[in-house]
Amino acid sequence: KQEVTQIPAALSVPEGENLVLNCSFTDSAIYNLQWFRQDPGKGLTSLLLIQSSQREQTSGRLNASLDKSSGRSTLYIAASQPGDSATYLCAVTFGNEKLTFGTGTRLTIIP
Amino acid sequence: GAVVSQHPSWVICKSGTSVKIECRSLDFQATTMFWYRQFPKQSLMLMATSNEGSKATYEQGVEKDKFLINHASLTLSTLTVTSAHPEDSSFYICSARSPSGEDTQYFGPGTRLTVL
Predict the structure, then answer these.
(1) To 10 degrees, the CA torsion angle through A25, A59, A53, A6?
(2) Which residue of B has its CA nearest to A88?
(3) CB distance B95 to B36 below 8 Å
């Protein structure tokens, strides 16, 4: 069964610190991997998309890496800000072209 | 960028009634749309894949007669929750994939359904 796991479920970090969110998946035969942000009661905002042939993608203070062989991806957030507080979801497109979502990490940046 | 809208953003209904949720791609045509359900503090679970002009493909465990999906045009898909019950209360999110070959899905803002 293709599964996506995110640990920890919740994380609190003081403002200004760098942080890493983790995502692991059970099947290395992925098509791509995406990181999303979800604010409470809202839809999803796409942050970064990494194709299976890529190792990382960067957008501003965000950097996402992909290691297919180990079945892991990380989302690095530099110089965290209170506005970064949200739930971050990792989603993997496996060969069947369906997105499988992780359970998310609820991030709180403490001012 | 590609924008997907949903209507309504929230709805409250009585048990036994039916509710229709619309998903529109505003600035692109989408041959494929997806419907997800998210229960509180849980992740998104794919309910069905909606293809324009054909029947939807439902995920295992999702009742097709209860969750009616219609994708009548390249910019509109609808999800109708029939004979809604309190356990159907959830956050329903749609997404659309552009036919241009892009890999990403564009997500709508979601619809909060509360069944009393």
Answers:
(1) 0
(2) B43
(3) yes
Q: Are B3 and B75 in contact (CB under 8 A)?
A: no
**CB < 8 Å to B60, chain A:** none
Nearest residue of A to residue B58 by CA position?
A98
* Tens digits of residue pLDDT in B17-40: 999 999 999 988 888 899 999 998
DSSP assigned state of A17: -
Beta-carbon contacts of A83 under 8 Å, excluding residues fewer than 6 positions away, are: A109
Cis peptide bond prior to B8, omega within 30° of 0: yes
- Specify the DSSP element, H or E, that contains A25: strand A19-25
pLDDT classification of A42: cutoffs 50, 70, 90:
confident
pLDDT at res. A14: 97
Buried/exposed A48-72: b ≥16 CB within 10 Å, e otherwise:
bbbeeeeeebeeeebbbbbebeebe
Q: What is the pLDDT of residue A53?
A: 92
Mean pLDDT of chain A: 93
